[in-house]
Write a structure and sequence with these properties.
Strand 7 and strand 8 form a beta hairpin. This protein has no helices and 11 strands. The protein is an all-beta fold. The model has no long low-confidence stretch (mean pLDDT 97).
């Protein structure tokens, strides 16, 4: 069992930056592929970014490429999402995800609101 505790988020003006963090419990963090998803009101949860277990490989949803950066620190059991040049359409609840084989765990979610 892995528990994911998110922090960061909040209200920011368009063009601003925020950093989300997701800290995992346990000693197997480096075995998990980590990702970030988001869900806007009335919409389905969508993929934002993913990072491999070693951190050597990343992928992003097209609309955030060049603006968001996912990273991880396996020594601290933490994954990050640095969000720059934020847009109002980035407003959503953001969730971190940990996946290892069939095991999938979600963070509690954190709200990001970007004002125009």
């Amino acid at each position: 069992q892995v528990q994911l505790v998110q922090s960061g988020g909040g209200l920011v003006q368009a063009g601003g930056s925020l950093r989300l963090s997701c800290a995992a419990s346990g000693r197997t963090f480096s075995m998990y592929t980590m990702g970030w998803f988001r869900q806007a009101p009335g919409k389905e949860r969508e993929f934002v970014a993913v990072i491999s277990r070693s951190g050597g490989s990343t992928d992003y949803e097209d609309s955030v490429k060049g603006r968001f950066t996912i990273s991880r620190d396996n020594a601290k059991n933490t994954v990050y999402l640095q969000m720059n040049s934020l847009k109002p359409e980035d407003t959503a609840a953001y969730y971190c995800l940990a996946r290892w084989g069939t095991r999938t765990y979600w963070g509690q979610g954190t709200q990001v609101t970007v004002s125009s």
